[in-house]
Amino acid sequence: MHPVLTVLAPAVLAVALWAAWLGWDQQRDVRADGTTTGPYEAWQVAGLALTLLAPVCWAAARPRLAGGVWGVPAGLTAAAWYDWSDDASGLFALGVAMVLVGSLAATAAVSALIGFARRGRALR
What we know:
The protein is mainly alpha-helical and about 120 residues long. It has four helices and two strands, in the order H-E-E-H-H-H. The protein has a two-stranded antiparallel ribbon with strand order 1-2. Helix 2 packs antiparallel against helix 3 and helix 3 runs antiparallel to helix 4 (about 90-124). It is elongated.
C-alpha cells in the first residue's frame, strides 16, 4: 500500500467524521441561569473519539506506523480550523492547536499500543 494513502485515508475520514458528529451542531445552549454551553455535547465528542479508533487502528496496523499517528490529527486539525475560523475573538487558533496536540498524543499512544501488540505477536 502506498505510504501517502496510509496518511491521507485517515485524514479524509477524520474530516468526514468531524462533519458527521460535530459539523451540524453550531448553536450554543443557554441555561436557566444565563450561562451558555456548547455548541457540542459530550456524547458527540465521545462518539467522534470512539469512531476515530477504527481509522487509527487501521493505519497503525500498516507497515508504516506514521500514517496512524499523523493522518487523524491532520484531518481533525483541518476540520477544526474550517469549523472555528469564523470566531471573531481569534481564540479559535488556540483551540485548533489544542486539537492538534491532543489528537496527536492520543493517536500516538493508540498506534504505539498496536505496534507493540503486533511486534509481540510476531515474536511468538
